[in-house]
Amino acid sequence: MEASASQKPPQGWRANIVLFGALAANLGIAVAKFVAAAFTGSSSMLTEGVHSVVDSGNQVLLLYGQRQARRPPDEVRPFGYGRELYFWAFVVAILIFAVGAGVSIYEGWRHIVDPEPLSDPTVNYIVLGIAALLEGSSWTIAMRAFDRTRGDAGWWQAIHRSKDPAGFIVLFEDSAALAGLVVAAVGIACSHWWGDPRLDGYASIAIGLILAGVAIVLARESKGLLIGERADPAVIARVRAIVAAHGGVTRVNHVRTIHTAPDSVFVAISADFDDALRMGEGETLIETIERELRATLPELSSIYIRPEKSADAYRGSA
Length: 318
Description:
Elements (H helix, E strand, L loop, with lengths): L12 H28 L2 H27 L14 H30 L8 H29 L4 H7 L3 H29 L4 H30 L5 H12 L4 E13 L2 E10 L5 H18 L3 E8 L3 H7 L1
Keywords: Membrane, Transmembrane, Transmembrane helix, Transport
InterPro entries: Cation_efflux, Cation_efflux_CTD, Cation_efflux_CTD_sf, Cation_efflux_TM, Cation_efflux_TMD_sf, SLC30A9
Membrane topology: Multi-pass membrane protein
């Protein structure tokens, strides 16, 4: 017997603040970086401008993915559209790799082969300082939001277990952006210190490699969400304990779960019921178990309970 499926919004208002804050910061930073690159001819500054544009587009895609994921279930998608957010998260990872990293490495190589004359770097340093303040503010917002959700888990463990790609993608993007700003500043400073504009191009390639590494990690995490991941082991254990606690259930064979959205889980339960139960009593028991599961674990959007003999019971009757 299956409970009616209802999709919760996969993102809360805090996550939207993270995305809107990152979007506003990246748009402003991108304009400033392109202006600085136009005045100074800096390869790493141009690369950083492209980086900010890609990040801005990523935030737009994640906001779009959130909106699409909130659509209610229908005949075509009876479990809702929550996993569409995971698709757009994977697209974001591809864009970071193909556009962000690709353009950065190409621009770096071009400026190494055909370096531009050095010019006054003051504008670059001013823009980098402003960008660091804006990116730092966005990073702080994203970090605080992620910190509220990770509990006692370590950082990497929390990212690997997270079912909300918007939160950790923004955190990774902002971290990569801050690292890129440091590399760009070092590249500009070294190119002027040694009078070699090619060093700025090497800095651009280094920024591209940072973006490529981030993109690979994000693609790996997004792929896992897209093809389906189980619920937290604590949730599975709680489901098993609730079902097993009922007197009419002699054994819980298995509990299988899959996330249909960051805050929505489908659960399929196989349980061996007491043979003495009548049909009507079994139906009532299943409804009781479903109500208790929904009350205790509201993230369970769909519940399927299948009465089924355990393997031990089959072996005993053989």
